DNA sequence: TTGTAAGCGTTATCAA
DNA sequence: TTGATAACGCTTACAA
């Protein structure tokens, strides 16, 4: 009960495997009539092409490695969805790995992808990733790497990132215009490029408005709703702040909960802007103002960039593409002056 | 600049490829000293094993196909995460595909997976899937298939499902105990097993309480927040219902929005229970009562089941494993009588 | 313990 | 337009 191969088809028709191969892979150098017979027989014998053999022989693989910190994060799963949408029609399958935010795991994943001889890698770093030799190794082995979101210039190849700086800037500028002044910033590790840039946007907006930067209002490690909740609760109680710019929507939800429990009205006494436009942002009350990152667009761009590198086998381009973000002003920050949009 | 192969290593050491192969794959039939030399040389030449060649030769593959309707759904991405957690340590990689809820796409995906000679498939049907020959074909080709969540008994092999009936039953029973009587049911297509079972649980709870079933309170196609919102709005206005059991949390959010806009208090005048325990369920106001499905557990069980079939190469088992669900009673349904839990 | 040799299923090159 | 043949890199009887 072995599987049907092109040899079986060839034998059944009294021709050679080469012809069958040509016919099945759409070569023009084959008689239309024989092609018909071959296709028919293939159907009849339930022939399934063997990509493993094909890959070995051709020396290339139609599989792309995708490496993300966690697949079950809204943002990443959407990026992956978009990548698939581009790459599948182009004839590629995705080998997906998660680093679980661990560097060791990330190294292992790269290794697995290389062993599997993927045609390319699209990836976003773990938060722990501070050295890049494992990724550079892939590039050295002629496996093109496209980085997205969390990226490093140390790694050759295209990068696709969100306008994080601009997002932070717009969010905080908007808060200032809405007459909030003591604006706290909740964020993740500032060693990660995305958080660092949002933070810089925050700083720039303050500076532009002539508001002195106060280090004591910036809180790293407040990116989850739990951690955010605890700190926000204390801050609100002590009445030190009148607004929060959170580098993530979950973080913002922590603030929202804390405010609710303290009986502080949003946006009345407290302004709040998140980041990411998670699906719930528009569903909670008050509806959460946030910076929308276009995961779909980002995945699309990353996949397209990789496709270009693969197909042109061109010299490595080091350009960084930027995906625009959008400030969505909703209820949680809409006090007086500013006009509501969206 | 070709890649290093075991032949290169063999040549460099004046031994044969077979020995190198044995050493590198951990066979005991090789001298400890030669093994050392081989490993050292492999390191030195930056040898990367070629899984493609290995798979072809061995006739089996360490890749598992995972096919889900959409990777960017909270539930599915968590299941995939759990599957990976089991299969990666076991030495398998995941080839992930999405059907995008389309049957044609699902058929294509199965085809790709078979072409890639995956060792097994873990899948959940698209909503359109009403015939199963493409899946049965995989089983016939000796590729074990494990179905989860959306499953069919037509396909041989293990199935892992949530306690959907029980979830629906518990949710509605709880609403009834909280003194709600006119309970509407918002759900997806009842041709999909998960929705059908939740619906049956709903019916059973009503029956048990002696409340007559009213067909006009059941709404298929109200599983998104948008569709749900529209219908809920009308229902609330017409004062025909005093509670909603939604087969999904997004659906419940639509109800919540509608109620808010109508100035109807939840849980005071309207009870609401969702399904899935999406991350936002605990963050919205009022906090949403819902039925928690254990995606993690489900993924774990599915992966373990597949592993067993693969490793034992055993006869196909047709058992259906059930993952318990939990009713999380939160604010949106906590009126008088019932005691709050969780 | 190591070597020999064949073969996994496909494709590319060359010749007919 | 088709056929013959070798090769992709690895594993595995079998022999030494």
Short note summarizing the structure:
Two copies of one chain form a homodimer. The first copy, chain A, contains twelve helices and twelve strands. Chain A is of the alpha/beta class and 342 residues long.
Number of strand segments of chain A: 12
Spatial separation of the terminal alpha carbons of chain A? 62 Å
- Return the structural class of chain A: alpha/beta
Q: Output the helix-strand order of chain A.
A: HHHHEHEHEHEEHEHEHEHEEHEE
Radius of gyration of chain A: 26 Å
Low-confidence stretches of chain A: 337-342
**Helical percentage of chain A:** 40-55%
Shape of chain A: elongated
Oligomer category = homodimer
Largest sheet of chain A: 6 strands, parallel
Provide the residue-averaged pLDDT of chain A.
93
Biggest sheet, spatial arrangement of strands of chain A: 2-1-3-4-5-11
Q: Beta-sheet strand percentage of chain A?
A: 15-25%
Q: In DSSP terms, counting alpha (H) and pi (I) runs of 4 or more, how many helices of chain A?
A: 12
Question: Which two chains have the most extensive interface, and how many residues on each?
Answer: A-B, 49 and 49 residues
Provide keyphrases for this structure.
six-stranded parallel beta sheet, DNA-binding, 12 helices, 15% strand, elongated, 342 residues, homodimer, alpha/beta
Outline the structure in words.
- 2 copies of one chain form a homodimer.
- In chain A, 43% of the residues lie in helices and 15% in strands.
- The first copy, chain A, has 12 helices and 12 strands.
- In chain A, α8 (164-177) packs parallel to α9 (193-208).
- The longest helix of chain A has 18 residues, at 295-312.
- Chain A is elongated, with a radius of gyration of 26 Å.
- At the A-B interface, α4, α5, β2, α6 and α11 of A face α4, α5, β2, α6 and α11 of B.
- β2 (93-98) of chain A pairs antiparallel with β2 of chain B, so a sheet runs across the interface.
- Chain A binds a DNA duplex (16 and 16 nucleotides) through residues 3, 5-7, 15-19, 21-22, 25, 29-31, 34, 49-59.
């Amino acid at each position: 009960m072995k599987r049907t191969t092109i040899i079986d088809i060839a034998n059944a028709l009294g021709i050679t495997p080469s012809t069958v191969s040509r016919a099945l892979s759409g070569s023009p150098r084959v008689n239309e009539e024989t092609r018909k017979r071959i296709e028919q027989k293939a159907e009849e014998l339930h022939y399934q092409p063997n990509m493993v053999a094909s890959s070995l022989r051709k020396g290339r693989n139609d599989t792309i490695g995708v490496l993300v910190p966690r697949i079950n994060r809204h943002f990443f799963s959407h990026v992956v969805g978009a990548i698939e949408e581009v790459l599948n029609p182009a004839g590629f399958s995705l080998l997906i790995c998660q680093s679980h935010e661990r560097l060791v795991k990330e190294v292992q994943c790269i290794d697995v992808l290389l062993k599997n001889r993927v045609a390319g890698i699209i990836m976003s770093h773990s938060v722990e990733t501070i050295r890049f030799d494992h990724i550079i190794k892939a590039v050295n082995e002629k496996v093109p790497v496209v980085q997205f979101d969390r990226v490093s210039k140390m790694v050759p190849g295209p990068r696709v990132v969100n306008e994080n700086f601009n997002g932070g800037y717009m969010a905080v500028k908007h808060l200032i215009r809405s007459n909030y002044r003591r604006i706290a910033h909740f964020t993740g590790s500032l060693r990660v490029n995305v958080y660092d840039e949002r933070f810089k946007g925050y700083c720039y907006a303050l500076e532009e408005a002539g508001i002195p930067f106060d280090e004591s209002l910036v809180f790293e490690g407040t990116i989850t709703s739990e951690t955010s909740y605890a700190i926000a609760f204390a801050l609100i109680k002590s009445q030190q702040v009148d607004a929060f710019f959170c580098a993530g929507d979950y973080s913002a939800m922590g603030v929202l909960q804390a405010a609710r429990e303290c009986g502080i009205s949003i946006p009345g006494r407290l302004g709040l802007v998140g980041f990411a436009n998670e699906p719930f942002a528009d569903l909670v009350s008050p509806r959460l103002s946030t910076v929308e990152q276009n995961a779909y667009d980002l995945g699309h761009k990353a996949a397209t960039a990789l496709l270009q590198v693969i197909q042109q086998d061109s010299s490595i381009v080091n350009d960084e593409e930027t995906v625009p973000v959008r400030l969505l002003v909703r209820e949680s920050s809409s006090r007086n002056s500013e006009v509501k949009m969206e």
